[in-house]
Amino acid sequence: LAMDCAAAASHAEHKLLLDDVGSLAADRGCYARILERLNPVWSSAEIDRMLDAIGVPRHGAAPVAAFVDWAMAGSAAHICCTGGCGYIGSHTVIKLIEAGFRVSVMDNLMNSSSKVLARIKELTGHDVPHFELDMCDAAGVDKLFREQQFDGVIHFAGLKAVGESVAKPLWYYRNNMYG
């Protein structure tokens, strides 16, 4: 009888937790409260059932790690870093990723290399979307911003070589002022 009562209590607790997880899942920012409720003594199968019930895709990841990835995907601000393949831009991209932001890079690669993106992935473990686009292409920039819906922009795109700016002042002015 004691075993049946414990099993019934456990089942009722799981049902309440499942209802709680389902309601909190609507607000992915509550993932920490949900994780606190995932008692470490529960089996992986029990946690899997809960995650299945709220639709968390796992793709072979451990249950709690999959849940964190799923929860964070809906809560991180999406930042566009223009000139993100340059020296300062790429370092900023790394720091943004480390701070939990989703980051995309817009860079026309005029003074940088796409090889930087491979190094960013090596350092952070994240593939950063790259949009090879010139800031002076107003229609292209408008289209990108409509499609991506960024939460913020950090702007590092621009020409900066002093000697070249003296030799081609109008080109620098057009690029750096209109882009």
Could you please describe the fold and organization of this structure?
56% of the residues lie in helices and 9% in strands. By secondary structure, it is an alpha/beta fold. The longest helix has 24 residues, at 2-25. It is elongated.
Rounded to an integer in angstroms, the radius of gyration calculated over CA atoms is 23 Å
Query: Which strand order does the major sheet show?
Result: 3-2-1-4
- First CA to last CA: what distance? 75 Å
The strand count comes to 4
Mean pLDDT over the full residue set:
75
Taking pLDDT < 50 over at least 5 consecutive residues as the criterion, the unreliable ranges are 1-33
Determine the structural class based on helices, strands and strand pairing: alpha/beta
Largest sheet: 4 strands, parallel
